[in-house]
Amino acid sequence: MNQETISLWDASAEERPIETEFKPDRHVDVAIVGGGFTGLSTALHCCENGMEAQVIEARQIGFGGSGRNCGLVNAALWLPPQDVRKQLGTVYGPRFIEQFGKGPEYVFHLIEKHQMRCEVTRSGTIHAAHSPSGYEELEGRAAEWKRLGEPVDLIGREEVSELIGTDVFFGGLLDHRAGTINPMGYCRGLARAAHGAGATISTGVTATELRKQGDGWLVNTDKGAITANKVVLGTNAYTDKLWPDLKKVFTMIHYFQLATKPLGEEASHILPGKQGLWDTGQIMFNIRRDAFNRLLVGSMGQVVGSTDKGLSHYWAKKRIRKIFPTLGEMEFETSWDGQIAMTPDHLPRIHELDNGLFTAIGYNGRGITTGTLFGKAFADLLAGMDKADLPLPVSPMKTVASAPVFKKLYQSAFVANQIIKSV
Ligand SMILES: Cc1cc2nc3c(=O)[nH]c(=O)nc-3n(C[C@H](O)[C@H](O)[C@H](O)COP(=O)(O)OP(=O)(O)OC[C@H]3O[C@@H](n4cnc5c(N)ncnc54)[C@H](O)[C@@H]3O)c2cc1C
Asked: What is the pTM of this model?
């Protein structure tokens, strides 16, 4: 299959893609649609639980958000823990915060266990205050994490300047649980581990229809059909018309990245500890370095223009010049964007679309730990765990009626943001 290069990570990951031939007319315990973190973690853990699993991926492993993201392995959600608890209540709230607070530890454990080559750093991530009010917000988050006994430090302006190599931020939250990876390396590593555990992983195969058959499911694809006792959809923001109403439960937004060519000594003051960073701005901004000393910057929206010409190119140059004025001229090597599924309350969802057909969706831009843990939870559920023990309640699908309007509004706001910050 001819594959397009979808991101820097696609080109730079040391792990190679793994795939096995799709064989129609077979029966499996679980059919999984989507070859990202959710689908592959489901496959790995299902096989470890003694089930036979078939992953069906329309394009290539990591084609969705999993192979395009910033690689920040963060704990829990964007929402502060106190808001998660308020929204999820006294049973699911504390359970979710506990389990997902330990999310990075579990991801790093899998990486270690399966020797995944994905450029791991475990020196934390920094949530940087872009304004004094951003810093106040971080104070609230820090206090709550501290109360829960988690290793998170609120750091002042001076210390954050040293950690990041610039004085433009007003302070930050350093989360010692977190780290960075090459996300495509991790995704392919999950595929290799799942394959090693017995999963069949087929790429270039699109699931086109799901039909109930007896106690199980018929999964039609463009390469023939299989049957399965259970089906898990790990299609998230890349959900197509396979289960038409599923596209309506989130608002799709884009997020983009530009990466410089590898930099030399002149960049050694930038994030010397190799933490990944995102800021408190409403239209979020992120910075990190990769293992080859490329500097990556990104924000919400799509790449406008190309890597070496056009709006996003000027935006990235201007942002880097403002934050790291001593860096001088730099060339960009590549740029890309991807899709994110946002929910109105910023919480992910677990839906049972029909008997034995499950999905987890709406990760709101935090999917490395979330997809990994939901995959494990699905595998435990299919092996007999009570639904009530899932990290989230199984909720009915709810159409976000305003999603098409908001999608357009966000798109315009994100372009405007690039224009304003480029001049
Ligand atoms: C630019 C960007 C930056 C991000 N940064 C971070 C970050 O730093 N940290 C973090 O934790 N998260 C981040 N995220 C979010 C994270 O990447 C996603 O939440 C996560 O990848 C979702 O994983 P998934 O497996 O659920 O879905 P995806 O990885 O999106 O996979 C869905 C797959 O389903 C396939 N598919 C869809 N329909 C069909 C069909 N009918 N048949 C077969 N296959 C089908 C698609 O081809 C796709 O490969 C970012 C996202 C983006 C886009």
From this structure: 0.97
